[in-house]
Amino acid sequence: SHGWAQQEEEAPQEARPTVTVQTDVTAAAVSNLRDSAKFTEYRAFPPGSWGDVMVRYRRGAYILEALAKNIARDDQILQLTSQRFGWFKLDLTYDKLPHRFAFDAQSLFSGVGTGNLQLSPRLQSDLQSAVSPTDLVGRILGYLPGAAAIDEALFRKTFRADLKVVAWDPFRLTAETRFERREGTRPFFGSFGFGNTVEIPEPIDYDTTQVRFVAEYGRKPLFVNVSYYFSDFANNIDTLTWANPYRATDSTTAVAFTQSYLAGPATGLIDLYPNNRAHYFSFSGVLMDLPLRSRLSATASLGRLTQNDPLVPYTSNRAIGRGAPSGVPGELVPLDAWDKASLPTQQVDLKVDVTQLQLLLTSKPLRFARLKLKYNFYHWDNKSEQIHFPGYVRMDAVWVPTPGANVPTGFQNSSFSVDVGLDVWKSTTLTLGYQFVRTDRVFREVAEQDDNTFRFALDTRPLSWLTLRAAYERSQRRGEYDFRIPFIAAHGGEVQNPPQLPFLRKYDQANRDRDSVSLMASVSPIDKLHLSGSVVYGKDHFRDSPFGLLNARRTVYSVDTDYALTEQVSLFAFYSFEEYKNRQKVRQWVPDGIGDPYVRETGLDSFSNWTSDEEDKLHSLGGGLQAVLLKPRRLTADVSYTYSRSDGAVAFASPVGTSANDANPFEPVGLDQLDDVRFQVLNARFRYTVTRGLAYTLGVLWEKFRYDDDLSTIGLVYIPVTAAGAFNGATLMGTQLKGYNVTVFYMKVSYTF
Amino acid sequence: AQEAPPGQGYVGTQVCRQCHAPYYQSYIQTPHGVKEDKRTPEAKFGCESCHGPGAAHVREQGGEVPGNGLATPAGPGNASIQVLGPKSKLSVEERNAICLSCHETMTTKVALWHGSPHESRNLTCMDCHAVHGGHPKGLVKPTELETCTTCHQPVKAEIYKNSHHPIREGRMECASCHNPHGTVTDKLIAAHSINEKCYECHTEKRGPFLWEHAPVTESCMTCHTPHGSSHGRLLAAKTPFLCQSCHSNSRHPGTLYALRPEQASQGLSVFQALNNRAFYRNCLNCHSQIHGSNHPSGKSLGR
């Protein structure tokens, strides 16, 4: 271990200047590195060599430190710190962080990384001229060998400059600036309808600038903090246009979005994340030493989020012009949907005001009693304009003449809580609490909702080597659910039978009973042995939800131990078991068809209902040792192993009827492999210290990751359309999660002078 | 440390050092040991800034004398020396008061300690911090993760899950999102709301958007679980079932994507029976702008 001063701040030992240089050079051999991008998801492990350097100059209370870590790797960090204790601290940091998604993904597109993904016109023409789904499959398979291999990853490159001045204590000033570039590609989908969805590489070219200024005053009995925060997000690629593999020419029909190669656009158009800005002014203050050993804290914040990007046209499909057929028989397209001039407005003017206020009073009126009163207010006031559109274009394929407006949802939370803590015995505290939360929403199903929570906690440390903690919490959330509200907001009061199952309750607003229990015990019977265990149980019961999520349970058992066998050897181990269970109920229906809740089956029962019981079981275990194997040269070993395993499954049930009265006949075959993972990590490091300044480290890292999922067969590039299921078309890139078995051998030379 | 004030029972750091050299050495290496910084213990009474005047302790040739706490400044004749670790005879509140006497007005991070969940649950500063030569940030364990998961054990397993933030890779820490010393937000989130914290790194999802996905603006946690998930993209449940919890609209949202009788009779496997609304990213194969869309035709979040 090393002193915390070395990371945060370094205390001067001597007044004369000193210079310290620490260098690490690492050489590594890596096997199977490109099995899967998962191994290097957030890191770089290049075969070859890399280095770390730290240079520190110190004179009295002044320190100048330069750090370069993982030099030339894709996850390198460069840092320069200039600090004078009691005066100021300046940090300049460059940080590069990868996020890899796939190696060797297969793409038929050119222009990867740009906002314009193109296919060869010959391919598009060829596929458009297919005469049957089977013919289409045969034709596209012929092009797949020519697909280019691409790696999909994005990189965060962050520059930070932070200055803190404490020279005028108790006044302190902080300025933090952060500029971040994100660039690369990530897996993304663009759909032309039910028969044709295409996996494409989304170009990432983001710039984010964030600034925070903080002024503080702190001297008893007062602490005050005033701050301003500004964040600007800029997407340098506004839109993504991608070629339709199945179509060379634009066309439209009433059902073009179901027809794959028969009709639809030659290209698709997506408006990528728009530029946005946020400003926040915040104040917080604490008044201490009030009567009855009380203190009062207050926090207030005003924020504004804005977004005013220009709009793109309804579609890039030039066949959807005035007079073309729409999605409703007999109705024609009333405008040129491909022309931006047809829009009701050319750019949006969206704005959200955020107000936050908190008051907290803590008091200890009696030696054995504590009181906490808290009021919290948070308002997400969406002041965005509503824009009324005469219709929209579905998947760039067909005009849908359904007028509607955007729905600027908003919400407001007001909460009040009281907690009483009683020191009932030596080092034993019983806490009883109550919290009331009222949520008011705009344009959502539950306009007003109350949540009452009762809680208690018992924390005791009866002996210096024993700690026990228990907590229980029960909350009841209630509100009136009106599923028509969002539809009325979008379409006015004319919607008679909204295309939503009226019995459904969305779980984030539904009436809910929530119970949670946590127990924890920590024991250190002797100084060198520590044992702890915990149980966490949580249950959400959506008691008034006939459909939707009905209940969700979570149970976690954990044990953990570490033991210093001798001064030279210490061991640790842990095990955790988690179980998640969800039950939900859904109905498949079409208007006027079987299961229609307004016309055909207006009650809760229907042959078209189905339930799913999802279950995830996870085991995680690990252990290791740290040992001094040889003295006085200090040969040390650090070995650890972890294994985690998750098994997901879902079982289905439904009153299965005949095809005449069941819109949803299915075989009761569940899915046994849902995101099943087996993950092992072995890490062994041996360090041999030759002299005070020189050390060698020899290490091995072995990781094995296996992934199985019934919904994602690895390596599949294309799902063919079939004669029986013309809606199944998808052109994929093979970015599905893959397993790996990687071993890294490395040697590091560390030298300090 | 400054010269001990006469008559108040202080003996000075150099006297402490004679018997407690390792403690002195570890302390003097930390920011507490910087004499030039007038805020530090070393600029005040050295070891005795926290442990109290040591004259009685020296006179009795060591050993702890039961004391009356240091919540108030020690006065003349106070014959106590304060042990602050696990074997301390001081109450949790008294021990914390010693640290807070400087730190609670020193930074926003600690200003809201009183009333915080950790304060309410009787944690001492020394449960997480080792003043004498701890690890980075003065922690009792080498990393924040190891320190925090001493109590928050389920999180230790969660970071090994398939989908996770770069915590186990060392590129994020617990304090990247939480302030364990107290915040205005539930779960000790170091922002005014959960979403505001998420938006610091995921700024593109902040919006506002022309077409909002309403639950997104209220809480990212409606769909995501940030410490780790067996499901991709930190989702709280597997799609399409997660989406179908809320979307039982007419037509395809309510479809159960399972094996149908005619497919079973053809001998197809579950996988072969799937279509592009169930395969891989399921609903997101078409509704890819799930966090919000700015496209005039993006009301279904597909553009």
Walkthrough of the structure:
The complex is a heterodimer of chains A (753) and B (303). Chain A has 753 residues and is mainly beta. Chain A contains 3 helices and 35 strands. Chain A has a 26-stranded antiparallel β-barrel. A 3-stranded mixed sheet of chain A has the order 6-11-12, with no helix packed on it. Chain A has a two-stranded antiparallel sheet with strand order 17-20. In chain A, helix 1 runs antiparallel to helix 2. The longest helix of chain A has 11 residues, at 133-143. Chain A is globular. The two termini of chain A are 19 Å apart. With 303 residues, chain B is an all-alpha fold. In chain B, helix 1 (13-19) crosses helix 2. Chain B is elongated. Mean pLDDT of chain B is 86; it is low at 64-79.
Strand-pairing-aware structural class of chain A: mainly beta
> Strand tally of chain B, please?
0
The rough form of chain A would be described as globular
Query: What's the end-to-end separation of chain B, in Å?
Result: 66 Å
* Gap between N and C termini of chain A: 19 Å
Number of helices of chain A: 3
Order of helices and strands of chain B: HHHHHHHHHHHHHHH
Q: How does the major sheet of chain B shape up?
A: none
- Residue share in β-strands of chain B: under 5%
Residue runs with pLDDT of under 50 for 5 or more positions of chain A: 1-12
What class do helices, strands and sheet pairing of chain B give? mainly alpha
Number of helices of chain B: 15
Unreliable segments of 5+ consecutive residues of chain B: 64-79
- The geometry of chain B reads as elongated
Please state the CA-atom Rg of chain B, rounded to the nearest Å: 28 Å
What is the average of the pLDDT values of chain A?
93
Helix content of chain A: under 10%
Biggest pleated sheet of chain A: 26 strands, antiparallel, barrel
Greatest interface and its participating residue counts: A-B, 194 and 122 residues
The helicity of chain B comes to 25-40%
- Regarding quaternary structure, what we see is heterodimer
